[in-house]
Design brief:
By secondary structure, the chain is an all-alpha fold. Helices cover about 75% and strands about 0% of the residues. It contains 15 helices and four strands. The longest helix is centred in the N-terminal third of the chain and has 40 residues.
Length: about 350
């Protein structure tokens, strides 16, 4: 009788806890959805065009940081040549319209296919290497492309050091190209893209592919001896993050109407890595938030004429004070607050 009573109470406790957990999950999901919607529609009514442009650039940098952070967190690989995909797809898109007389939609499709083919070939060659060699090979590939656009023989296509002005007409997937230049409309497009790809990478990280990537990161030799293919998951992960970087590059060119060798340079890849560290490598919100922080911080630092000095100090402070980034720091603070409430 006593055992039956205790069992019944225990079951009721489990049921109540389960229902409470579901309620909290639904509440968190609802509040999160409302928050994402507000951030999408409110800034155009509250901020100036200049602020919206900075925010749009920050979101694109956040998407590039997201691709770098995903590969770091899931596979333990650092892609220092991420900008070659970001800027390279923009160049291909611009060349497709200016030299090949393609429509914007067709030029986008051709550039995307070439980028995927290039990423597949490069990835197949380098994902088998150790993390240090991978980092250096992506850097070498990125620098190779960055210097190739400056070659005199390719100047008619790439514009050399002057870059290319992209003159677009028509629409892409039903969206008029002029809408991409409008700060308010571009903020909405960039925000939707950042949220969609952030959610996609978050889902991949919790899928079988993500679990295999993390296991390979921890001990690749053990995974091979256990019968797992360690090459294909790494290649898929590399392709996936390059797709995100490519989309960010497309949006950058559509917004600015210009593509230059700087978009291919190491500085862009470094900025993405710094943004990822500032926001937090783990998760999807951190890198995107880091991109926004970095973009606005660079503007403030530049206004004071101390961009490099203040950027270096900010990086040191973030790494020392918030080693897990802003999102990780906030998570720790909330966890500590909850612990103190339980203790009291």
């Amino acid at each position: 009788m006593s055992n039956g009573t205790m069992t019944g109470e225990g079951l009721r406790g489990v049921a109540v806890g389960h229902i409470g957990g579901l309620s909290r999950a639904k509440l968190a999901f609802g509040l999160g959805t409302i928050g994402l919607a507000l951030v999408a529609v409110a800034p155009p009514y509250l901020a100036s065009d200049f602020v919206l442009r900075l925010g749009g650039e920050g979101l694109l940098l956040g998407m590039l940081a997201l691709s770098v952070a995903f590969l770091m967190n899931q596979a333990g690989l650092v892609a220092l040549g991420a900008a070659s995909i970001y800027g390279g797809t923009g160049y291909l898109f611009a060349i497709g319209m200016s030299e090949w007389s393609l429509t914007p939609t067709v030029a986008l499709g051709v550039a995307f296919l070439i980028t995927v083919a290039y990423s597949t070939i490069l990835g197949a060659l380098i994902v088998r290497t150790n993390p240090l060699a991978f980092m250096m090979l992506t850097l070498a590939a990125g620098e190779m492309i960055s210097h190739a656009v400056l070659l005199e023989g390719l100047r008619d296509y790439t514009g050399g050091a002057d870059g290319l002005v992209v003159r677009m007409k028509g629409s892409i997937f039903g969206i008029d190209v002029a809408d991409f230049a409008d700060p308010a409309r571009f903020w909405l497009l960039a925000w939707i893209a950042a949220v969609v790809f952030g959610a996609a990478l978050w889902g991949v990280g919790r899928s079988r592919l993500g679990a295999i990537l993390r296991a390979v990161r921890e001990n690749e030799e053990r995974m091979r001896f256990s019968g797992f293919n360690t090459f294909v998951p790494r290649l898929l992960g590399y392709l996936l993050v390059n797709v995100v970087a490519a989309i960010a590059g497309f949006l950058h060119v559509l917004n600015s109407g210009f593509v230059s060798p700087e978009s291919l340079g190491l500085s862009v890849s470094t900025n993405a890595l710094v943004a990822a560290l500032m926001g937090g490598v783990a998760g999807s919100a951190g890198p995107i938030l880091g991109g926004l922080i970095f973009s606005f911080a660079q503007d403030e630092f530049g206004a004071r004429g101390l961009t490099q000095l203040l950027t270096g100090l900010a990086i040191v402070i973030f790494i020392v004070v918030l080693p897990r980034g802003v999102v990780g720091g906030l998570s720790n603070a909330l966890r500590l607050l909850g612990w103190r409430r339980e203790a009291s």
